[in-house]
Structures are given as structure tokens and as C-alpha cells.
């Protein structure tokens, strides 16, 4: 009987030890990144939950029912790419009559590309959600 109690006590001790090793630890409190970092002039961190503007010139994200960035400036001959990151479909369509932008309906993950050959200011919107507007400015 003593041998059984000793074995049982040993198994309980091992089980408790393993439980303690695998116990979840308290997470460190989340902190926001600094707005800017010393020695990194011109670079900023995005607040948590907010996406940074695309780093590549000529790339526009369609996200949260907005074009980001809303104003893009590129040189003539640059291809601008729009990527739909929303669950809802969107379009990229020139405002007014006769503009060059006429994308098909873009579902999530789909892209539309257009090469801007001539300098000028090109305003566009999503025809499905006309409150979504933006501009591409093309320089020589």
C-alpha cells in the first residue's frame, strides 16, 4: 500500500510540474509604436490597426471603402496598379465623360492596371460606391 501511495504521489507531482510548465503566461501590455524614430528621418510608424500607405509609387489599395493613397503623383509612362482588398466589389472609373480609366468590377484580390502616358490630372471614382473618389496627377 505504501508503494502505491508513493507512486501515486510521484505521478501527481510530475503532473503538477508539467501543468505549471505549460501554464499560460500573462501577455505584456500592448504599446503603440513611436510616431517617429530618432535617426530615421522621414520615416514614421503606423498606429496599430491602421495600414501604412503603399511604399511603392503607383500602387493604390482599395480598402475600407477608400482608395489609399487618395492622391497619387507619378511621372508620364508610369503604370498605376489598383488592388481591391475589400470584401465588396469596386471599380476604378474616370469621373466625367471620356476619361481613360474604365476598370471592370474588381472582386477581392483582383487588380487593375493603367499606363499614364500623358501628363495631367485624372480624377476617378468607384461607380458602385460613388463617394469613393481619388486623383492621379501625372507629371512630365
UniProtKB/TrEMBL annotation:
Residue ranges of domain EfeO-type cupredoxin-like in the record: 50-138
Signal peptide start and end residues: 1-26
Gene3D superfamilies on file: Cupredoxins - blue copper proteins
Region (Disordered) residue spans: 82-105
Domain of life, source organism: Bacteria
SUPFAM superfamilies linked to this entry: Cupredoxins
The keyword Electron transport is annotated on this UniProt entry: yes
Keyword Signal: yes
CDD domains referenced in this protein's UniProt entry, alphabetically: Amicyanin
Localization in the cell: Periplasm
Keywords assigned by UniProt, alphabetized: Electron transport, Periplasm, Signal, Transport
Primary residence: periplasm
Protein's recorded name: Cupredoxin family copper-binding protein
Species, as recorded: Amycolatopsis samaneae
Organism placement in taxonomy: Bacteria, Bacillati, Actinomycetota, Actinomycetes, Pseudonocardiales
Amino acid at each position: 500500500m505504501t508503494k502505491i501511495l508513493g507512486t501515486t504521489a510521484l505521478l501527481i507531482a510530475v503532473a503538477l510540474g508539467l501543468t505549471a510548465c505549460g501554464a499560460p503566461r500573462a501577455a505584456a501590455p500592448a504599446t503603440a509604436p513611436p510616431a517617429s524614430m530618432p535617426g530615421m528621418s522621414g520615416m514614421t510608424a503606423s498606429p496599430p490597426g491602421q495600414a501604412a500607405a503603399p511604399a511603392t509609387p503607383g500602387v493604390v489599395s482599395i480598402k475600407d471603402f477608400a482608395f489609399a493613397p487618395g492622391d497619387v503623383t507619378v511621372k508620364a509612362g508610369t503604370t498605376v496598379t489598383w488592388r481591391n482588398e475589400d470584401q465588396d466589389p469596386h471599380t476604378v472609373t474616370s469621373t466625367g465623360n471620356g476619361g481613360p480609366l474604365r476598370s471592370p468590377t474588381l472582386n477581392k484580390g483582383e487588380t487593375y492596371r493603367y499606363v499614364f502616358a500623358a501628363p495631367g490630372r485624372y480624377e476617378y471614382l468607384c461607380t458602385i460606391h460613388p463617394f469613393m473618389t481619388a486623383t492621379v496627377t501625372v507629371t512630365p
